Amino acid sequence: xxxxxNPQNMNAQNIKKRTSLLVFLKGSTxxxxxxxxxxxxxxxxxxxxxxxxxxxxxxxxxxxxxxKVCFAANQIAAIAMQEEQYV
Length: 87
Description:
Blueprint: E1 16-25, E2 32-34, H1 39-49, E3 57-61, E4 68-72, E5 76-86
Antiparallel strand pairs: 1-2, 1-5, 3-4
């Protein structure tokens, strides 16, 4: 019988989920991937701010590789929430 691949003896108990906020900026090919404490709240804030006609600058401190980021709300093309698994 074939043995199932299980790197480092991982089991379902070791796998966790986190949600990141993806911010697609106009003229950029890759999104900003933001790991925030409350991504749902930040998603709602950004979706509200991107409707604004005045240039509002947004500064966020994150928990991922990007520690601090600043961008203009009127440069947001799209936002998304992404759920990912990690160990």
